[in-house]
Amino acid sequence: MSHGKLVGLVGNFSRPSKSYALVETVTELACDRYGLRSELYDLTDIGPSLGNARRYDDLDAAARRAAQDIISADVLVVGSPTYKGSYTGLFKHFLDLIDPLALQGKPVILTATGGGDRHALIVEHQLRPLFGFFMAHTLPSAIYAADRDFADYRLVSQPIRHRVEQAVAELGAFFPQTLRHSLAAE
Predict the structure, then answer these.
(1) What is the number of domains present in the chain?
(2) What whole-number distance in Å separates Cα of residue 60 and Cα of residue 77?
(3) Long-range Cβ pairs for the range 70-73 (8 Å, 24+)
(4) Which residues form the NADPH-dependent FMN reductase-like domain (predicted)?
(5) Does residue 72 sit within a domain?
(6) Nearest to 102 by CA among 130, 77, 134
(7) Within the chain, how many helices (H) and strands (E) appear?
(8) What is the pTM of this model?
(9) Does the residue 35 lie in any domain?
(10) Is 92 helix (H, G, I), strand (E, B) or coil?
(11) In b/e form, how buried is each residue of 158-185, taking b as 16+ CB within 10 angstroms?
(12) Of 1, 36, 77, 166, which is the most buried if we count CB atoms within 10 A?
């Protein structure tokens, strides 16, 4: 039984991508636990119209479809690689084209990746305030993973996997019926 839709948004063009792998890991766990269906987008999926778009209507059909999926999602998992201490510019530009009230009340799991520990606060100092502006519910546990936490674009760090599990468990507040059933089954 499906209880809703989770949309993942990754703020980069690179494929394969550690940021995509992290968002995908969170998405798979959340979908398994809560019976959600999912869709994942990165900036390549959103397409070339993004760079020239000055407003939502300037986006092409693929980009508008991604935006509508994000707006209509029950849960978001967002992630970005860290560039110069923040999320990517086109990731922010894409979100700038979405109505400020469109994400109000939506649960969001924040993720980010970077070369090392130096960028770990991106989730608290950059992503959390951004989604706070949209009045979304950012979950308390955010996930940051460094290059050393991956092998072949797969998350291999047990401490980071534990953090993923913790963040996904926090979604239970938004899906209490599913949580009760999964706890009863254990």
Answers:
(1) 1
(2) 23
(3) 70/7, 70/9, 70/41, 70/98, 70/103, 71/98, 71/99, 71/102, 71/103, 72/5, 73/4, 73/5, 73/6, 73/7, 73/39, 73/106
(4) 5-148
(5) yes
(6) 134
(7) 8, 8
(8) 0.93
(9) yes
(10) helix
(11) eebbebbeebbeebbebbeebbeeeeee
(12) 77
The residue type of 8 is: G
120 part of a folded domain: yes
**What is the domain range of residue 94?**
5-178
pLDDT digits (tens, 9 = 90+) for 82-120: 998 899 999 999 999 999 999 999 999 999 999 998 899
